[in-house]
Amino acid sequence: MNKVDLEVTDLNTEEHAKEEILAEEMPKKKKNNVMSTVLVCVGIMCIGIAIYGLYGSYKEYKDGQDIYNQAEDEFVHVNDDWGEDEIGTTTEDPNIPDEFVSENPDSSTTNTPAPEAPKGPWYERVSVDLKGLQAINPEIVGWLYFENEKINYPILQGEDNEKYLTTAYNGAQSNVGSIFVDAANSGDFSDTHTLIYGHTLHDNTMLSRLKYYMTKSWYYENHKYFQIFCGDEILRYQIFSYQEVGVDSYIYWERFESAKELSDRMLQTSKINPGLNIEDDDKIITFSTCVSDKAYRLVVSAVLVERYNITDNILTEE
Q1: 168 half-sphere exposure, CB direction, 13 A CA radius
Q2: FRET partner for 215 with CA separation of 20 to 30 A, picked from 31, 93, 202, 236?
Q3: CATH number for the domain running over 59-317
Q4: CA-to-CA distance for 212 and 210, rounded, in angstroms?
Q5: Where are the domains of the chain?
Q6: pLDDT tier, 61 (very low <50, low <70, confident <90, very high otherwise)
Q7: Three-state SS across 62-125?
Q8: What is the CA radius of gyration of the chain?
């Protein structure tokens, strides 16, 4: 074989080797492309499922809150003399998530002016058709209205403390649940200590706004009072204590005959002490709602300071 033949043979061998390498690499490339496509599709599916889950959760909360908005529209009347600015408003935009709100109490985003001076007696702010609500559900024992804040809901009481965790005031199943009185309490708020439960939700509804007592130093001054409509009376309470407690706290399990004894114990660990003169026969209400740590609860306690009899038009200081 001459030199030219050898060179041609070598070239043919090289070409053949390249073809074999390409032939081996082609399936690998196709396999890698298929895997890449599968991973992209799986990623898109995961994102889609996450978005769908978030939307489903949002819709569920919105549907639950819509039930209560309808109840408020139908059964609660705002006194026109007060105006919308003073009724059910808060000192910060409820649509702004917490992570975008400054925690600095001196910040211009949080340090807002106090509400305007009252335009009339506190008991003329709103009126509630409690009988109309009780015609829908006889387990409605009252209506909760926080002055200057968007906490405005019916109060329920069931035979146990499970039902209204996932049941709206009208009996509809909802993870929003209801605000409800402990099953062991009297439904007329006459006990020395009444426990009221409600969820803290991501959309800032139900009892979610109670967290601001703990996180905003200016909040208490603008949100000291709330009212409970019960029978033919409006009961007005002033908050005197708030703190986080364990789920096994004495607040849930011990029964107190003396409001003074209970309040003295609460104030030992409370984040605030406004110096109220609480006596043995006073009536205390404690709101309990969840926090991020499941082993703890936020509790906000208040004492009855005034009551107004709607039928007889009589105001009584407690």
Answers
A1: 20
A2: 236
A3: 2.40.260.10
A4: 5
A5: 59-317
A6: confident
A7: HHHHHHHHHHHHHHEEECCCCCCCCCCCCCCCCCCCHHHCCCCCCCCCCCCCCCCCCCCCHHHC
A8: 31
